[in-house]
Give the backbone structure.
Amino acid sequence: MAVFGKRNAGAGAGVLDAPGDNHAQAEWTTPEPAPAGMLQRGRADDPDGGYWPSGQEVEEVYRPKRESMRYKLRLGVPKTIAGRIIVGTGALLVVGAVLGSVLAVRGMLLHDPRFLIATSSEIQIVGNQHLTRAQVLSVFGSDLERNIFKVPLAERRADLERLPWVQHATVMRLLPNTVRVAVTERVPVAFVRQGTQIGLVDADGVLLDMPQDVAGDPKYSFPVLTGLATEDPLSVRAARMEVYRKFMAELDGDGTKRSQAISEVDVSNPEDVKALIASGSTDILVHFGDEDFLTRYEMFEQNLPQWKIQYPKLASVDTRYDHQVVLEMDKGTPVPVSGGDAPATDAVGGNAAVPSEKPVVAVKTPAKSSVKAKKPAGKILSKKQKIDAMLAAARKPAASNGVNR
């Protein structure tokens, strides 16, 4: 704080003398902070305002010490030879006792008569509808009178899945002496014609035997499929079945069940799917190509009544061409000509065109078709009656040869 002079009496009251020259205003400085980690004991004020250690006593910087976290585990291993022999002998006795117990339990399980599969009644089978019990038991023929733990489950499962009707199988042990077999069968999607025999085929192209109770069963209401053969690789049959599934799915996509009018489908040429469609007393062969199946079917269905009036002997319709349909008569049937409404016949090829109609119709008298249109004698047969008659005809040669299908 500044010091002022005494009051000057001569100058009058209230006047103070100027501050004395011998008094200088004090200068204040901010002291420097002490270094981190240093103790503040024994320090003296520096004339310049700093802190300096008193004398020569300076303490070291504090550094925390980290104790070691490592622990050592010491096993009590005997140091003498006798002690080591005793410990080794004990360990061998323990291992021998465990091994002996395991062998005793194994011998009991493998030789106890309670774990013996005595008869075929100890083999349970679930999930089989078309596959007979005898066919499943033929896989386990060598396991009768065998211990249940000696049955190779993985091998038996693989043997079951080699059967045509089995898509997936599971085999498990049920103690004390029962083997449980669960099978998932394949689902047939069409009849398949193989020469004079009729069988079934699933969506993957696997050919299946014909069950005994097919005739009259409503769940077997699907067409006969041609173009598949046992000598074809499974990959070829699977590719053709994919075309068949696409064809049927497009026709029935809106729930109208158009496929019920189809009695036969030919997939021998995947680029030209052919189908026999029932129409009155005849079946008409329709070429659908490999795309736009629903559009082509609807066009055929809409124009068929008019075509049948103009061409009573209509045998096939080819819908593979854009804005044009080729109609084919029965072999040897001339193309009819009646007034101006009927097409004019080409004298060379037997073809005719109708430019005024949409689509344009070309009519021809063709050569023999690869798939014949069927004409049942007598009364008109439904699709189900046709399939039943076909199955009955296919079984006759098999029965005469003593073959049980």
The two ends are 129 Å apart (CA to CA).
